[in-house]
Amino acid sequence: MAQQDRAIRTRRLILEAAASVFDDLGYDRATIAEVLERAGVTKGALYFHFASKEQLAMAVLDEHVLDIAVQPQKIKLQEFVDAGQVLAYRLRSDPIQRGAARLAVEQGSNHLDRKQSMIAWTRFVETMLNEARDRGEVLESVVVTETAELFVGAFAGLQLMSNALTNQADLSHRLTIFFEHTLPSIAVPVVLAKLKLDPARGAELDAALQGKALADAGVDVAVS
């Protein structure tokens, strides 16, 4: 078990190092040598988990969606909002999310299949919106697939603009404005009135999620 835990930690360390390299340099300029230097692992350890730079990049992109799991809410549309705000907050400093975001929208290299990341994120959003519709929270006129694609495309654009202007510092605020403009065309009025869109919510939710993850892992997070 200890060996398995060590392997999991090593894999995560390599992923985070690779993501930071992709964030700084982009896919084409990133090198395995730079990843090894930042991760502080041997070439054998890296190739045990990942056979190539492309595999590393695809693993980082996979984590882009898998890493976002918010706490269940009475209103499913609140979970939709929360997932967006948690991601917006993590894009400030989380290496996996920052690296994946650049890989997903970066232009240039044709060696990386970026569409799978966009498809996975769209399906993630579509699933939440479909559940919200089943609960009667979404207007009947809404085409869920198109709405999910709109959100993913808009978020990518907001992320690019925020990164260029403030290094993601104002992304949560920009996302809140987007929600304020679009949710009235999606949510039924009684649900819309109950949604919490505060841009500071992402930081609060992330702290709670991190605390829960530590508690589930048996780590004492009490402050003396």
TrEMBL record:
PROSITE patterns, sorted: HTH_TETR_1 (PS01081), HTH_TETR_2 (PS50977)
Superkingdom of source: Bacteria
Classification via InterPro entries: ArpA-like, DNA-bd_HTH_TetR-type_CS, Homeodomain-like_sf, HTH-type_TetR-like_transc_reg, HTH_TetR, Tet_transcr_reg_TetR-rel_C_sf
Pfam families found in the cross-reference section: TetR_N (PF00440)
HTH tetR-type domain boundaries: 8-68
Keywords: DNA-binding, Transcription, Transcription regulation
DNA-binding positions: 31-50
PANTHER family named among the record's database cross-references: HTH-TYPE TRANSCRIPTIONAL REGULATOR BETI, HTH-TYPE TRANSCRIPTIONAL REGULATOR RUTR
Matches recorded under NCBIfam families: ScbR_bind_reg
Listed name of the protein: TetR/AcrR family transcriptional regulator
Organism: Streptomyces decoyicus
